Amino acid sequence: MIRYRVRGGNALQGTAFIQGAKNAVLPMIGAALLAAEGRTVLRNVPIIEDVRRAVELAQSVGARVELHEAERTLVIDASGVRSPVLPAEIARRFRGSVLFVPALLHRLGEAVIEGVGGCNLGSRNLDFHYLGYKRLGAVVDEGDTVIHVKAAGLTGAPLYLDTPSHTGTENLIMAAALGRGTTVIENAALEPEVLDVIDMLSRMGAKITGGGTGFITVEGVEELRAVEHTVMPDRLDAGVFAMAAAISGGEVHLVGADLEHLGVVRWKLEQMGVEFHQQGAVLHVRRDRALRPINVITDTYPGFATDLQSPIMTVACLADGASYIHERIFDGRFALAGELNKMGAHIEVQDSRAVVHGPTPLTGTEVTAHDLRSGIALVLAGLAAEGETMISNGYLIDRGHSHLADRMQALGADVRREVSPT
After folding, report:
1. Into how many domains does the chain fold?
2. What is the mean pLDDT of the segment spanning 207-221?
3. What is the bridge-based pairing of β-strands 251-255 and 182-186?
């Protein structure tokens, strides 16, 4: 049982190092399994629980994987991949397991998915992944507890995504990379992480054009080779640390953060009174004035990232006036509101919309993380609250943020990660 203990009142000051991108490294581990020979080396790997689960999953299908934590490096030898089964005890805890399916289809002709895990975010299904496999020639047998995907080789086809999912885009690109002929993916995701995965696959020998346009073309090739690749910085981790500076009224220097990657998040924070200055690979963030209220509508990139909706809801609790939030991506994102209200916030939720009435002083108490993003948002709340905030289900925070307590402490925050026996 992991929990986080946060005592508020300190304005954050100093330098923090932004981790490698969670949403880039997970598909990259899946992509590494496409190479039947050689050793793939991934650098700037975030040391988070989702990466540990991905390593376990890759090992379970026969890959040799070394995670060098001090060097933040993964070495993957996929030559021994022999099992098509993604076991439930791992896959149920790790939604990214679906990213292993393309490699298993190409290497073994089948994939058996015993469970799909991750955060509880409402109606977040994976049907479009399996429909895409079917369009490429796979046979998908969906049972009550197991999904069995079989293919004696995949063939290129026109594909359309109802929503530009980054995971769906990456998955279908990987499935098409070793297929026969040409695949065109319309309404593809535009996230920087997708472009980073495309860059890695291209260096492996894949023929992919149109990244960042929403219209991606993949020409199938005979084989892909192992490569060395450095994972891009995590824009969501950068967004969280920028909001930590905002909610505490501090000034921080974020090494590795790219202001352009934040999309609309940058503009909304500036509307609230946060100042940004990019200086090479360092992003300077400061807030020294009263926070102003905002309107937020989540959207796919470059719109306001749904993963940063929970953190900005927390920041909005201190804004002078009412903020309006419309969640358009995942219908399970507002579980945070009840936890913040326990701390003294005044948040009203109706369906996919929330109104945050501010400013309200926050008071530390015992709260629960319902998913990764609400968990990190509660850490931010603790930074601004009077007294002590105890956050249970801290494992969910560890799924997405590496060495969070250490990095927060380096900025002067009183944040501690504890392992509880019960």
Report:
1. 2
2. 97
3. unpaired
Q: Is residue 221 helix, strand or coil?
A: coil
Q: Tell me the β-bridge partners of 142.
A: 147
Residue type at 307?
Answer: D
pLDDT of 420 reads 79
247 and 138 share one domain: no
Q: Which of 245, 263, 240, 288 is nearest to 402 (CA)?
A: 240
CATH number at residue 320: 3.65.10.10
- Using the predicted structure, report yes or no on whether residue 4 has a pLDDT greater than 80: yes
Question: Closest Cα partner for 179 from 125, 219, 127, 231?
Answer: 219
Mean pLDDT of 263-288: 97
The pLDDT of residue 242? 98
Same domain, 226 and 368: no
Q: Cα(170)–Cα(164) distance, rounded to whole angstroms?
A: 11
Q: What is the pLDDT of residues 86-121, one digit of tens each?
A: 999 988 877 788 899 999 999 999 999 887 544 443
Pairing, β 353-358 against β 321-326? antiparallel
pLDDT above 70 covers what percent of the chain?
Answer: 96
CA distances from 229 to 7, 18, 366 (A): 39, 17, 42
Cβ pair 168, 162 in contact under 8 A:
no
Residue in 65, 113, 119, 294 annotated catalytic: 119
**DSSP string covering 138-170:** -EEEE-SS-EEEE-SS-B--EEE-SS--HHHHH
Query: Does residue 246 sit in the same domain as residue 160?
Result: no
Q: What is the rounded CA–CA span in Å between residue 50 and residue 303?
A: 25
CA distance to 147, 148, 159, 200, per residue, from 144 (Å): 8, 11, 27, 35
Boundary residue ending a domain (194, 210, 230): 230
Instruction: Give tens-digit pLDDT for 348-398.
Output: 999 999 999 999 999 999 999 999 999 999 999 999 999 999 999 999 999
Output phi, psi for 411, to 5 deg: -95, 5
Q: Are residues 251 and 286 in the same domain?
A: yes
Is the whole model's pTM more than 0.85, yes or no?
yes
Of 177, 20, 25, nearest in space to 94 by CA = 25
CB atoms within 10 A of CB 142: 11
Share of the chain above pLDDT 90, in %: 87
Residue for token digits 């501090």? Answer: 250
119 is a catalytic site residue:
yes
Domain that holds residue 252: 2-19+233-419
